[in-house]
Amino acid sequence: MCELLGISSRRLTRLTFSLEALAARSGPLSTTRDGWGAGFYQGRDVALFREPGAASDSSMVRLLESQGPDTTLAISHIRHATLGEIKLANTQPFVRELVGRTHLFAHNGHLPGISQSEHFCLDRFNPVGETDSEHAFCALMERMKSLWHSPSASPSIEERLSLVTAYASDLRRLGPANFLYADGDVLFAHGHRRIQSTTGKIEPPGLFMLARQCCCENDAFEAEGVSVAPGYQEVVLLASVPLSDEPWRPLQEGEVVAISMGRPVNHHQTAH
Questions:
Q1: Do 266 and 258 form a contact (C-beta atoms < 8 A)?
Q2: Fewer C-beta within 10 Å: the chain N or C terminus?
Q3: Where on the phi/psi map is residue 203: left (φ > 0), alpha (ψ -120 to 50), or beta?
Q4: What is the number of other CB atoms lying within 10 angstroms of the CB of residue 10?
Q5: Residues classed as catalytic
Q6: Sequence-separated (6 or more) residues with CB below 8 Å from residue 167
Q7: Distance CA 5, CA 243 (A)
């Protein structure tokens, strides 16, 4: 299956993003060689990098690891194609604009029948490619436009979290629905199910979360393929699998977490 990674930090920092660890998962013995992407927020906009090929073969990945942009919010995805050709239009993360703000989305799972479902009808937002994941994102944005009315009047985090939670509940009826969604302010993570390497079965957990504080100028965060510059910092990482020996918390099946500026601020737990 696909690999997801999200990072939220309190302070603007240079991240050695986890593309090294995720690239290893798309190496010669892996099936995740169908594309990779990473989006780094810069204010309300996103610096987006994507390629429809293996991250382990990419010179752009090497460039980002050494010279990636400073950010407080980022999402990365490595693709294992289940629907749609291997091409740029089908490569995640996907972006859309709403009231002058760039929204970013990446999904892990398979959602058969989403284009025919009455719960995921489209109007203003439409896919460029053919994936179920992009259709899912467009459907989320159709719902989000009811909350966002102007660039100067952001809906509350609770309003956004409630909408994302209801959307995630509908999405789980179709299939595995782990996703990361960001609006430039808040990172939302939904944990569901994925293929487990130990059993080969599709079951929880689908995402793991780690919250970390760097408490002094010489204290840097290090995990497999992840580095946050030393200094006073708070950071939350979300990944398909733990990237270090630290106590990563598995998200419960159906749990949606809202994270802002390196801190989990709220979460909802819904029925499976």
A1: yes
A2: C
A3: beta
A4: 17
A5: 2
A6: 139, 140, 143
A7: 10
In whole angstroms, what is the distance from residue 79 CA to residue 227 CA? 23
Least Cα distance to 160 among 262, 238, 261, 268 occurs for: 268
* Every domain of the chain and the residues it spans: 3-269
Pick the CATH number of 3-269 from 3.60.20.10, 3.40.50.170, 3.40.50.300, 3.30.450.40: 3.60.20.10
- The burial class, CB within 10 Å (0-12 / 13-18 / 19+), for 164 is buried
Of residues 66, 10, 5, the one with CA closest to residue 36? 5
Q: Taking the chain (272 residues) in consecutive chunks of 10 residues, what is each chunk's mean pLDDT?
A: 84 66 54 80 94 84 81 88 82 96 94 94 96 97 94 91 97 96 97 87 93 68 61 84 88 97 88 63
